[in-house]
Amino acid sequence: MSAPLNKKEAKRIATRKRILDTAIYLFARLGYHKTTIQDIAYHIGMTTGAVFHHYSSKTDILDEVLEVLNQSFDPYIEYLETTDHTDYDAMVTGINEIFLDRFNHQPSTIIALSSLTAEFSGIRGPIISKCQAIYDRFVDAFEAAMEKFAPDKRNRARAICFISGLQGVALQALLRDGEMSIEELLAGF
Fold first, then answer.
1. By the 8 A CB rule, do 40 and 23 touch?
2. Average pLDDT of the chain, as a whole number
3. Single pTM value for the model
């Protein structure tokens, strides 16, 4: 059992989380390159110096954002790896339930990864490789689950298209807020 955090350490952790949550929100909506440290600081009522006290650069924030986005796939991976899937519709329903919970509680984590992927796709390099590795965790788990009950060489392509479709549902839900619910869009998906 670990020792309880002192107040200073707890405050440091909470502040870093606020910075990351704000960075995820802004990267999802403005993109990485158009988001400044000043934007992040302004949105959480801090100075840029205070942000730099916690992170030495915007790149350091991006690296940690990617780790948070990677961890946001954990519930999907756990579901796909620990449940014996024998029915595709039931498996998709389970994934959609996880997605719906994530959309209702952390929509920016869904949108930020697609935004960062689009922004860095033309650049190629370590960031796009990290984005692909995050997606591939889901793709690998979905493909493996599908192989157990329906072996097919197209399962990887299906898994890639499925995660892309879910992200499209999230974007449309934000776009059509008030016109159509996320539940209605998922039912259509």
1. yes
2. 93
3. 0.90
